[in-house]
Design goal:
alpha/beta, FAD/NAD(P)-binding domain, FMO-like, 2 domains, flavoprotein, FAD, 9 helices, oxidoreductase
Length: 427
């Protein structure tokens, strides 16, 4: 049966009004589409909105993961949008969450997005029909749930909502307090306590550094091959992975043991899309969202795109690049490859990852050193403007320093000179 040609489709649904959703909305509108973004929160900004809200029951879901005192681990010079950078008058490069939120509000103001955003409107279900998408929206204000119909769907719901908590022997018998970083807000609750922090990624290092200012002692458990510098923290001791918990502490994989009153799991998040019906054609196994072409286009239903799955990337620029990439096809300027071609490319890319020793589904969307190749692939394939080399050069300069040089890292101040060059001085 014939379907509407892609270039004649006009209606775009954007799920979420955070950094990715705002970008998808803005670019869709500029392309001439009829676009609307649905945000279940009371304001735009997604993960950058701070809230002290805690779950009221085991079934209650808290959206925000933001904690007090957070400063970005990337400089603002690489966190803006290509056509809307941060104000260069802000002296610091590593800004606080409130400044990021103000920036996103300014972006929405500048591009007149507010009239196209529905706050406190939650997407409950998305399912494909013969020629479009049926999207059920719950209006929290009116307490009504109604279906709407769209030609394209951008999934921009973020992935900092569902905690990924490891299954470690003895967790059930441990009598202290256990908390995932998703619900960490401020260090006050740890005053004069011994605390175990699991994970030495960006959040683990940062939260350990916050907690140690009030705690009696902090144990930082991780399996990094190179130990980060914690000498400046004083009361922080690094430990290997936990072998098993005891009633009042843990035994670690080197045979040592410690006692503590609190555990904070800085162990990442689960990619989850609860509003998508099974016939959307997407499955998620250990954070591997598949099958996707170029980490964003739903191969089984190509008029749906996921924005923001890759990690260890330039987040805002990646979102913008993915949206502009997909719009080249949604506007009819370019024709998508066949399903068979997209599947073959996906299998080839994943095969390369596994052959490089990355046979771990949780790393299926990890970019790191691959990010620059990924950016160029999107730009070259669709004929869109590449990310400016200066952004990539700054990223290379920042490489993992937010873990290994945390004591001095945020004292750096970057200034972009031109499309390729920058300066880096200390505040």
């Amino acid at each position: 049966m014939l379907t509407t040609p892609m270039h004649k489709k006009r209606r775009v649904c954007v799920i979420g009004a955070g950094t990715a959703g705002l970008c998808a909305l803005k670019n869709s509108l500029q392309q001439g589409f009829e676009a609307v973004a649905y945000e279940r929160g009371t304001e735009i900004g997604g993960t950058w909105v701070f809230s002290e809200e805690m779950p009221k029951s085991e079934y209650d879901e808290v959206h925000s993961s933001m904690y007090k005192g957070l400063r970005t681990n990337l400089p603002k010079e690489v966190m803006g949008y290509p056509d809307f950078p941060y104000d260069s008058a802000i002296e610091e490069s590593f800004i606080n969450a409130e400044q990021v939120l103000e920036f996103l509000r300014a972006y929405a103001d500048h591009f007149k997005l507010h009239s196209h955003i529905k706050l406190q409107h939650e997407v409950i279900r998305v399912r494909p029909r013969l020629n479009d998408w049926e999207v059920y929206i719950w209006d929290h204000n009116a307490n009504t749930c109604e279906p709407y119909y769209f030609d394209f769907v951008y999934v921009c719901n973020g992935h900092y909502t569902e905690p990924d908590i490891p299954d470690i022997e003895g967790m059930q018998i441990y009598e202290g307090q256990q908390l995932h970083s998703h619900l960490y807000r401020k260090p006050d609750n740890f005053k004069d306590k011994n605390v175990l922090v699991l994970g030495a990624g960006p959040s683990g290092m940062d939260i350990a550094n916050h907690i140690r200012t009030v705690a009696n002692h902090v144990y930082l458990s991780h399996h990094l091959k190179t130990a980060p510098n914690t000498t400046f923290m004083g009361n922080v001791t690094q430990k290997p992975d936990v072998e098993r918990f005891t009633k009042d502490g843990a035994i670690f994989k080197d045979g040592s043991s410690e006692t503590f009153e609190h555990v904070v799991y800085c162990t990442g998040y689960v990619y989850t899309f609860p509003c998508l019906s099974t016939d959307v054609g997407i499955q998620v196994i250990d954070n591997f969202v598949q099958p996707l072409w170029k980490h964003c286009v739903n191969i089984n239903n190509p008029t749906m795109a996921f924005i923001g799955l890759p990690f260890h990337v330039l987040p805002t620029h990646t979102f913008d690049l993915q949206v502009r990439f997909t719009l080249k096809y949604y506007s009819g300027e370019l024709e998508l490859p066949t399903r068979e071609e997209m599947i073959a490319e996906l299998e080839e890319e994943q095969g390369e990852r596994w052959n490089c020793g990355f046979y771990n589904r949780k790393k299926a969307h990890q970019m790191a050193e691959r990010q620059f190749e990924y950016y160029n692939q999107l730009a070259t394939t669709s004929g869109i403007e590449r990310i400016k080399p200066v952004m990539l050069n700054i990223m290379k300069e920042c490489k993992q320093k937010y873990i290994y040089n945390l004591d001095t890292y945020r004292q750096q101040c970057f200034k972009i000179i031109d499309d390729e060059h920058f300066t880096n001085t200390k505040l």
